[in-house]
Design goal:
By secondary structure, this protein is mainly α. It contains eight helices and no strands. Helix 1 packs across helix 2 (20-43) and helix 2 (20-43) packs across helix 3.
């Protein structure tokens, strides 16, 4: 095991025991790793920093919602990588990336499915989403949960396409802040 794996796993175990400071440190460390991972993957597809940050926020939110599924006997980084990979696959599906845009060794990812949906995680997500302003919630639900395009989400939510993009970006940050606040209490 690498030193980083040992450190991250220790933070995860402490956070699962209710240590809020360890949880914040874990999310900071994972965010840096995820940012590097997504930056590398997306750069090869001609994507930029905005998409990278969106994916980091989505992955951190998924880690928070799925943390109860982590098996403490197993290494942490493969579990995190699996979540990160599924978020990337979802992003590629949502953005309708053609297989011509995806490096050949990663083209099979587009066809993968994440069938692991937990009722508890869904409940947590719904509860957190209810705390967001209506237009922000509508934008996130339409694009991130229902898989609509930005234009379709704009029509559904009754706002401009740029408004949808801003709402998603700010909404994901707000969700991350809500999660951080909940772990402190």
């Amino acid at each position: 095991m690498t030193t980083q794996e040992v450190e991250l796993k220790a933070l995860m175990l402490a956070s699962l025991d209710g240590d809020a400071a360890s949880y914040r440190s874990l999310l900071d460390g994972l965010s840096r790793r995820l940012r590097a991972y997504y930056k590398g993957k997306l750069a090869r597809m001609g994507r930029g920093a905005v998409e990278t940050e969106d994916l980091v926020q989505e992955a951190v939110l998924a880690i928070h919602l799925k943390r109860h599924t982590y098996d403490p006997v197993e290494p942490l980084t493969p579990w995190v990588h699996a979540i990160a990979r599924y978020k990337l696959i979802d992003f590629l599906r949502r953005t309708r990336a053609s297989s011509a845009d995806v490096p050949i060794d990663e083209a099979d990812m587009i066809m993968a499915h994440d069938d692991n949906v937990d009722a508890e995680s869904s409940h947590d997500l719904k509860r957190l989403m209810q705390r967001l302003p209506e237009k922000m919630r509508c934008s996130i639900e339409a694009v991130k949960l229902d898989g609509l395009s930005i234009a379709e989400a704009a029509d559904r939510c009754g706002i401009s396409e740029s408004g949808v993009k801003v709402n998603i970006h700010r909404g994901l940050k707000a969700l991350a802040a809500l999660i951080a606040r909940e772990t402190r209490t």
